[in-house]
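Suppose you are handed only two things: the residues of a chain and a line of SMILES describing fe (ii) ion. What would the bound structure be? This form records exactly that question and the answer produced for it, so the two can be stored side by side and reused later without any lookup.

QUESTION INPUTS
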Amino acid sequence: MALQKTRLFTHPGHRESALPENVQKLERVNPLVNATSLAFLMFEKPDLVATQKFLTDFGMQTVSSTDDKLVMRGSGSAPCIYVAYRGTSSRYLGAAFNVASKHDLMLLESQANARRLPADAIPGGGLGVELIDPAGNLLWLITETKPILPIALRTPTHLLTNGPDMIQRINATVRPPLEAAAINKLGHVVLQTVDFPGMTRWYMRHLGIIPSDVQYLPDGSPNLCFFRLNLGTAPADHHALVIVGGLEEKYEHSAYEVVDLDALGLGHNILRANGHRHMWGIGRHIQGSQLFDYWFDPDGMEFEHYTDGDVFTADYEPNYTPLNLSGIWAWGDDVPKSMGPQKNVSTLLTIIKLLFKKKISLKRLKLLDQAMSTPARPWL
Ligand SMILES: [Fe+2]
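ANSWER OUTPUT
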């Protein structure tokens, strides 16, 4: 059957300055501080040994491991990118971002009721304060953490890529070593929330983040935002934090940068050979453009390898597209069913609870269902 051209369609999007009448602009909030980088994520984990094994195969390096606490780093200069505290469950505790100075911490204490962290609380040292977001996740703002000596990454293979009219490699082969994909840095974390407007306002206020890409429901209301840090004229990753409206307060995934596509592929083989569970990939995202590969940790939490992401300066205008599953990747395997709406008893119970507590309206439920039920690949 011939493909119908009209169905082979990826929405081009709208610049924020030229939104159609029915699409609402994401409301902005004046920030208290501008975070300068995403430092590390914090988790509770029931089995630190299994967690450490997964993260090592995933490409992180152990900084310290005790019966109660696991600290991991990447190859970059950050002294820590992942911390797990031993507990009874597997859950996301929160994120730590760097801010420029002690002055920012004082501002957060006086204007946002932030609590000063004990001196030994921050892996890698430094000073910090703690806030709790509207969903109950921790947000640490830290400063004066001393960088550590980076571990050199191998030379990226794409520097010597051959192509039409572009011969860069003569009498030489591409043989990168079969090894875990060394993590350069922590790139982003994605959170689902029932209260999209409330969570986005809160994080814009306390991190100074700005929208790169916004996705909206069929009524034009924003429901997903890829936020980047405001680094002024310096380029920032397309997103350091993503917030998506849904039926739960939930960690979706976190993502870690590797050196190139070969690291993504070879790292995939290492994870597979060590019995870890693959989730999705390899493919290329649309928003952020990253090449990606998603894995489950031993407790079923999602971790993403990525490379070749977009970077924008602060003045780059946000783009708006309709929210649907087809919008999140350009090529690669189909998006797993687990990322779509789960129409089962557990979801039904969640919906009943949300309706009973008046946390969601029937209208919004219908809009969410309409957006997420659109076939991800209508031409297949
Ligand atoms: Fe991601």
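WHAT STANDS OUT: Residues 188, 190, 253, 255, 304 surround fe (ii) ion (CB under 6 Å). Residues 1-6 have pLDDT under 50 and may be disordered.
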